[in-house]
Amino acid sequence: ALTHPVDVIEDYLRNPILGNTPVEMIDEAGFDRAKDRLTQLTEDIAPTGYENGLRFAFFQTEAKDLNDHIQELALRSTLLFFWDMGMATVQVVLSHWLDTDVVFELNEGNQTDDTFGMEMLDLEKSPTELVGKFHNRGKWYHGGRLWRNEVQVITRRSDEAELYRPRKSEKLEMWTYQEVWSVNYVLETLLRDRVNTSANVTFSAHLDALHLQPGDIINVQRQSGAPKVLLHKLARVESASQSVGDPRNDSAPQIKL
Description:
Elements: H1 5-14, H2 28-41, H3 66-75, E1 79-84, E2 87-92, E3 102-106, E4 117-120, E5 129-135, E6 141-142, E7 145-146, E8 151-157, E9 169-173, H4 180-195, E10 199-202, E11 204-205, E12 217-224, E13 229-236, E14 241-243, E15 254-256
Parallel strand pairs: 3-12, 5-9
Antiparallel strand pairs: 1-2, 4-10, 5-8, 6-7, 11-15, 12-13, 14-15
């Protein structure tokens, strides 16, 4: 059976009974890169004597919208699932942006005029702890027989965030897992990502940003606000789209991020 999250998502797309997605619409190289990266990140999360890595273990009993279901699977495996130029692909969510290659620098020279916007997040509404609920496989069996289906709850908390704001808890149903170390890794990664995110930025760039995909890390270096404040921050691309432009009114192609 498939257990690696990337393999499971790809199978949902390919399986003729499920997604039945043509092979030419699947970014096989992108899926391979994501699998290798996620495997590398989780190669030592399990205690001695157990298999490492994130491993799905669930069954589906009801019909669901394919895209919504895959997005749920991606969230619970620290992945971003998206369509790029008509092809389905995934990227790994990395919580330590400082250790990540920066693939683009946004400045006033490569941003189209008057398109930069920034919205600061209300940090008091952002979680300082995530609570994950799952079925612990280690407590399902006794003497080779199924004896109880025990629900376990794990809490991961950011003490550093709670130095500056009150505790805010969010719950996440981790129905895709039956191993505590998998749940631990996902909760810690998602919580660190949420705690370290302080603003949403929107802008349009020229065609030199055409290569950007969701999940890419960029450097935002420009002035914004009143009075003007110089930003020099790392940001993760959440969405990207292309506007073809119109020569009749001198509008150039743009990449909206």
